[in-house]
Amino acid sequence: MPASRRRATLATVAASAGVSVATVSKVLNGRSDVAPATRSLVQSLLEQYDYVAPPQRRGEPAGTVEVEFDTDLNSYSTEIVQGAVEAGAELDVAVVVSIRSNADRAGAWARGLAGAGRRALIAVTSEMTTRQVAALSRARLPLVVIDPLNLPRNRVTSVGSTNFAGGLAATQHLITLGHRRVAYLGGPATAACNQARLHGYRAAMETAGAPVLPGYVRTGHFLYYDGVTGGAALFELPETPTAVFAGCDETALGVLEAARARGLRVPDDLSVVGFDDTQIARMASPPLTTVRQPLREMGGVAVRTALRLAAGERVDSHHVELATELVVRGSTAPVPAVPPASPVRPVPGRAAEES
Fold first, then answer.
1. For 90-195, where are the E strands, in sequence order?
2. Which of 169, 262, 317, 325 is the S-S candidate for 292 at Cβ 3.0 to 4.6 Å?
3. What tens digit of pLDDT does each residue of 101-115 get?
4. Cβ distance 147 to 170 under 8 Å?
5. What is the pLDDT of residues 195-240, one digit of tens each?
6. Is it the case that residue 66 has pLDDT exceeding 90?
7. CB burial class (10 A; 0-12, 13-18, 19+) of residue 61?
8. Domain residue spans in the chain?
9. Residue pair 151/123 in contact by the 8 Å Cβ criterion
10. In sequence order, what are the residues at sequence separation of 6 or more whose Cβ sits closer than 8 angstroms to the Cβ of residue 46?
11. Does the 163-294 domain belong in CATH 3.40.50.2300?
């Protein structure tokens, strides 16, 4: 093999930097006992040499799997982590949970994961760039994504649920209760899971002959605050909805709060459906009707799939979808006989005439 094609070693980098192999190893593992100037030099040489850790040898311990988020953990994240940890315990593999902070430098990020002994990466609701996927490939670090916000053109293994079927079931449930003015509050417009849930909602509305009125579809970030602000905006429309399908449980709880602030009673005046069936759905007041997404199972499947890829095995499919299920609780009811009143808007000049 030509010298230019040979895999760079720690000794190669150490010799170029004029430091010991131990120092290079410390930089790879994120140790703090390295002078800043030395750390910067070693990192630039690792980048230059495109260094990646050697592949795992047969018979060595399985190492660790990293489950990485790009935002703060919430009720959805907790369920994913629980499933991943349980699967890791069964397989005698440690699961490390992190929040991405330095993936802008794709090469250094991937090498850091490999250097820390990670055997695979599971990215949850993250936006993955082509550069990041390529850097992980060079580091021979398998990637599995759960509910990605986007999918690069590269062939990436992913785990999700039947989001379209879930969106369809949620909306059909509301239509069966007599609702025709049904709104949708979702997550990021580009997220594949959000698009599938929205398409399920639209399919149910079209099949029932129920029009999707202007302003009835809103996107956000799958957060509680999006439900509060989105719900408030819906209740200001000329024709207010009698039901709201929220793209996640947190958003649905925000809608409950927006309804409370408006003086609307759930489910007497307004029905609300969520998505996920996290713990907060059961703790809500009233308990939330929602689409159960098997989050723990998704975390477990992702870990097992990642380890199969790390072992060099082929997987049957590059995308796995687990079934969703509608769970009916107390936040939905038949459409009210008298729909909630539309907001009263002052007529310009009226007050002056009456005075």
1. 94-99, 118-124, 143-146, 157-161, 182-185
2. 325
3. 655 678 888 888 888
4. no
5. 999 999 999 999 999 999 999 999 999 999 999 999 999 999 999 9
6. yes
7. exposed
8. 10-43, 163-294
9. no
10. 13, 24, 27, 28, 107, 108, 111
11. yes
